[in-house]
Specification:
four-stranded mixed sheet, 8 helices, alpha+beta, 10 strands, 2 domains, 43% helix
């Protein structure tokens, strides 16, 4: 079972900087939403030291972060309004650019409920929250896509995503001129890694 610990203060500092930098987080700042930041760590095999589970699992899959609303009961004893759990093992392995992206993703799940008078508050005077769902979500089976090709919902959705958002999610497919050379660089890097993993004949 994963273990948990409060994330260090610099995680909260990075989150606060993100909230101030991007305008779409303004309602969270204005409402004074309090967020608890937690690191989750996978269990390690005693002999090998390798992880034997995921630090965070969402719907059966590994996740690098997870955002939740905190119950009224837990807020009444001093918890935040929301909590963001981060994969602490992954966090140690990546740089600030990826850390910032993960935090921004989790913060974007937090929405403040509002009416014509402003943000709503609960019995404790704390902002009432809802969790924003992803703009794009999918559930695909590789074998169904292989069996039914362009008629499968997997392939249809993939095409819709590429047509609508390709420049964001699949930059190598939707770039021009000088961007094309940059887009080739990561693929070359991954090709080299793959070559290293193939045993020599």
């Amino acid at each position: 079972m994963p273990t948990y610990q409060r994330a260090p203060k610099n995680v909260e500092d990075m989150a606060n900087a993100i909230l101030e930098e991007f305008e779409d987080h303004a309602p969270v700042l204005k409402a004074g939403v309090k967020i608890d930041f937690i690191f989750a760590h996978a269990d390690l095999d005693e002999k090998s030291g390798e992880p034997i589970n995921n630090a965070i699992t969402v719907r059966g899959r590994r996740a690098l972060g997870q955002c939740k609303k905190i119950s009224l009961k837990d807020r009444s004893v001093g918890r935040g309004d929301a909590e963001i759990v981060l994969d602490g093992d992954h966090w140690k392995e990546v740089g600030d650019a990826e850390r910032k992206a993960i935090l921004d993703h989790e913060l974007t799940h937090i929405e403040v409920k509002e009416d014509e008078r402003g943000h709503l508050v609960d019995d404790l005077g704390r902002p009432v929250l809802k969790l924003r769902i992803h703009d794009v979500e999918f559930g695909w089976f590789n074998n169904v896509a292989a069996r039914h090709g362009i008629h499968s919902c997997e392939r249809i959705q993939a095409k819709q995503i590429i047509d609508a958002f390709g420049q964001f999610y699949f930059p190598g497919l939707c770039v021009k001129n000088e961007e094309q050379e940059q887009a080739k660089q990561p693929s070359r890097r991954f090709t080299n890694i793959a070559k290293d993993m193939v045993p020599a004949n």
